[in-house]
Amino acid sequence: MAKQAACHKLECGAQPTRPALSWPHVAAHAMASKMQRALSTREPDLAALRRLAEDLAQQRGQKPTTTHLLAAVASGQDDAAQLLLERRLDPEVVLKAARITVDDAADAMNRAIQRARELAGRGGAGRTEARSVHVLFALCQESGTAAHRAMVQCGIDVTRLRVVSMQLAMGIAPPRRPVTVPVSANAQREGLRSSGIMPSAPVARTTPSTRPPTPSSPPPPSVRPSTPPVTAKPPTPIVAVPTPPPANKAPAQPAPAHKPPHQRSKKRTAAPATRADRFALDPKQFPLLCALGQNLTERAAKGELDPVVGRDAEIERALDVLAKRYANNACLIGAPGVGKTSVVRGLAARIAEGVDVACFEEKIIVGLEPAALLAGTAVRGSLAERLGQIKTEVARAKGRIILFFDEMHVLFGQDAGDEAASELRLALARGEIVCMGATTEQDYRRAIDSDPGLSRCFTPIEICELSPEEALLAIEGVTPIFEKHHGCRYDENALAKAVTWSVRYLPSKALPDKAVQILDLAGARARRRGESAVEPLHVAEVMSELAGVPEERLLETDAERLLRIEELLGDRIVGHKQALARIATVLRRNASGFRSKRPIGTFLLLGPTGVGKTETAKAIAECLFHSESAMTRLDLSEYAESHAISRLVGAPPGYVGHDAGGQLTESVRRRPYQVVLLDEIEKAHRDVLEGFLQVFDEGRLTDGRGRTVDFTNTVILLTSNIGAELSPQKSSTRARIGFGPAPVRRDDARAKEISAYQDAVAEAARKALPPELVNRFDEVLAFAPLGRDDVAEVARRILRSLARDLELSRGVKLDVSGAAIEGLLDAGGFDPEMGARPMRRAIGRHVEAPIAEMILKGELQRGDVATVDMENGKLVVDAVTPA
């Protein structure tokens, strides 16, 4: 009420007597008129807006402030002006506010224009020049400006205006529909036309809330009445407020545009109070709804609901469904956390504001929790009696009440009972109640879609998860609420990191809920520590606890990690330096944007068993996605039949397992950032292999439910044993003897053998696999068999890992000599045809088993050292106690 009173004071204040215009004033007015004509033919640039703001301040003998800049924005005809006019902020109202509002900073106008340029520089809809909508966003951003104070005093929801202006600036939202701009008599008296503020004639611009009048209809009023005219049929008296006297009722005909200012001010002063009160329910007439439910429309009118961003399409669909003649009950279907309840809140706010709700202006949305509805109904028939009472109260409102049931499937489950479900089903079928419900897809299919009679009463509306860009806009809309609650400011980078990291490392949850939870927890932690801002470091701490990813890995940028990817892969993979370099090159190239809509990388790894193909997949998962578990592994030897492709994408409708989804598509849909490992592809059926063609080429795959799964954030590795019978010695040519060239060095000979082997294996793969499949690989890599030195290095790494685990778990150190490594190689740890796996078995047999036996016998105590060495040609494990 204080805000509305302040706005009323601004509009109804005494007008100063206008002096006679001298020649400087006439020149200023002529210049402003010229600027107005320029602004009406094109979108104003920042320089024109600034000049117009300074001229407005000079004409009134005032110091230029951001309020004059806001008036300059409102005087245009572009999207920014439409946003202000939709909220009754015309230039006249803004200039009145300029009398009593001041900026905190002396250069507030310069800072607003500079911030507008920065926002435009980030780009939006392919445009980079700064426009008036960027200026409007900048003015809404700074709470210490005179323009921000003027909007607050006039009762404007600045947060909502800021979000909408950002959407327009970035090209996300469509252009605004024009609104009617009547020229008031007060504006004529002040000469706003000649000063360049008002156009020379009223511009006929309409919105759905202000339709153009027909020839037989009276002209539209300048201010929309807050209560219906007396000529219309009054609604059912459900509002618990005193009846106003007849003299204060709205006129039978709309007021003319030249209504005196003091009468218009009374209408505006009463509007905010009656807007919330006319949605209130009388507890005497609606006792059960008031006791169990929440009046969402009344709370929206009072400004108690959080703003909703990015759900305009779903809100429009819900309004269309509720306006139907049959099956006018909407069922919102979506995963937990996608924002089903937010759609209902947005619908309530739309009704409270009266925007595009011609047939819902008097509707009241009442939210009912099924748990509260079922409480205290253990006696048979009590729930049906309670539902009957709700039906009676809804009928008493004569169609004004819309019920909303969150977790609606509970009402038709076993807890509710058949009697209550039948009562509710009958009321829905007869149209006695209109309701909205929210549930998940699985619960909808189980509780509602399985009942043909019940499913006919509902129209399903699928609520999909917001994209990261849309989620960021939604979070920016609710950030001021969290800042007020926690008493700290959120850094813009922290908001972006919360969205990015939650998408990558919390795939089982949905946006925007998971990002909001992270930011809420980070704000609580910053407040507890007495810090004034939430930085990316706080978000990283919370994310590390939720996802188990080290903080330093989160704070490390992708560019730094990609530049070191060869080093990171080499820490885990022994040998194959050439193959790892080619993998790193492809990953860096595709991660930089040169990949269209394909996966990050698609590689075919060839070679015998035990050379490190699977270990390479694990190393890539850890380097790119910070965890070995970020990988889906499928053995394609299990897909030797043509019908086995249904296991990958899910069974078609009507078949067993349709609701379960596919093994591959469900895994990638739940975790988009991961490595997909397809083992032994040569054993899969040709139809199964051809099913991957669109994955490799377009980065997408359609599952059995018709949903498109995105593979553009995955790395796909395929392994095969094709060409395993070949060897480097057989693939290379023998050197000439006699009077031939000088013998080459051993290293050069080994390199030539490996190169010839890789070419032979790659050629064998091209002959064995379909050409359309091979043509879609980024790289075809052949892993040569490991040499003796390579296996020795594998043994050292295995023993170092064993020493760390032994010291952490038992407090025992491990010391292995170089002779022991050679002994492990001779004791069956090296086999050229088997790779590194024999070495792991040799270590388990000759090192791990003796140490385990010594620990059980008590020969190795905490603080002792277990030594492994060669004695008389045998591996010996001893226990040494340090002095």
TrEMBL record:
Record domain Clp ATPase C-terminal: where: 786-877
Segments for region (Disordered): 189-278
Keyword Hydrolase listed: yes
One cellular-component annotation, GO: cytoplasm
GO biological process terms held by the UniProt record: cellular response to heat; proteolysis
Alphabetized GO MF terms: ATP binding; ATP hydrolysis activity; peptidase activity
Entry keywords, A to Z: ATP-binding, Chaperone, Hydrolase, Nucleotide-binding, Protease, Repeat
Pro residues bias locations: 210-258
Composition skew (Basic residues), residue ranges: 259-269
Every AAA+ ATPase domain range: 326-465, 599-743
Record-given protein name: ATP-dependent Clp protease ATP-binding subunit ClpA
